[in-house]
Write a structure and sequence with these properties.
There is one protein chain. By secondary structure, the chain is mostly loops. The protein is built from four helices and eight strands. The protein is elongated. The N terminus and C terminus are likely disordered. Keywords: Leucine-rich repeat, Repeat.
């Protein structure tokens, strides 16, 4: 079809102008999401005075340095593209309070990102990050930070201690503090199956086996400690209360 090719869909200035919307907060948003764009459309520089820009869910592999022309931007959504790097010019967008870079192919972050001192929400989830700069801790206005589904093995203390941070999502990273602990071995012998038959119906071999298991059960009963002198609260019997004192008896019951 006309307008489509290896470069993805071509956006004309007319299409871009028709894509400007007024958001609930009164800001003008240029919404070019889900347009099949593979190359940053230079024609939108004519609309560089918008406060919000949505280029999410496209096929962008690169954001050029001309992004610096959008000095009024407070909200920038680039999630679900194919970005493997960010331009240094990203650090010139000093009015940004929201930046979504989720679901891309970022491996490193430019130091210039830490110049966005007004950022409140930063989403870096679903990328290929192995480290994040400690200088990210200079973004002291951050209230939400998404780092989930990356390859991070450490989160800098400067980031953890951000003064206004309310939400920090680091799920599904190979972080040592989230390593799964091995399940404790249960030393209590448990009965997997129980069959009820009369003694007269058992053959000699089965009867001998049953008598041996019964003797083992009696030994366990002899090892069960006697009643505790501690107060008992039947309605609150849990592994964290009185059952802790009589754990063997509690398990048997």
């Amino acid at each position: 079809p006309k307008g489509k090719g290896p470069q993805g869909k071509r956006i004309t200035l007319k299409v871009a102008k028709n894509s400007v919307r007024v958001a609930f907060n009164g800001r003008r948003r240029l919404d070019l999401s889900k347009m099949g764009i593979a190359v940053f459309p230079k024609c939108i520089l004519e609309l560089a005075d918008v406060e919000e820009l949505d280029l999410s869910r496209n096929m962008l592999k690169k954001i050029p340095n001309i992004i610096e022309k959008f000095q009024n931007l407070m909200w920038l959504d680039l999630h679900s593209n194919q970005l493997d790097e960010l331009p240094a010019a990203i650090g010139t967008l000093h009015n940004l309070t929201y930046l979504n870079l989720c679901n891309n192919k970022l491996k490193v972050l430019p130091e210039e990102l830490t110049l966005l001192r007004g950022l409140r929400i930063l989403n870096l989830g679903l990328n290929c990050l192995e480290t994040i700069p400690t200088t990210l801790g200079t973004l002291r206005e951050l209230t939400e930070l998404g780092l989930f589904d990356n390859a991070l093995t450490i989160i800098p203390k400067s980031v953890k201690k951000l003064p206004k941070l309310e939400k920090l999502n680091v799920k599904r990273n190979p972080l040592p503090e989230f390593a799964e602990e091995e399940e404790p071995i249960d030393t209590v012998k448990r009965i997997e199956s129980l069959y009820l038959v009369e003694k007269k119906d058992l053959c000699g071999s089965c009867l001998q086996t049953c008598q041996g298991e019964r003797d083992e059960l009696h030994k366990l009963e002899d090892m069960t400690p006697g009643p505790s002198n501690n107060p008992s609260f039947p309605s609150l019997v849990t592994p964290n209360s009185s059952a802790r004192d009589n754990q063997e008896e509690w398990r048997m019951k």
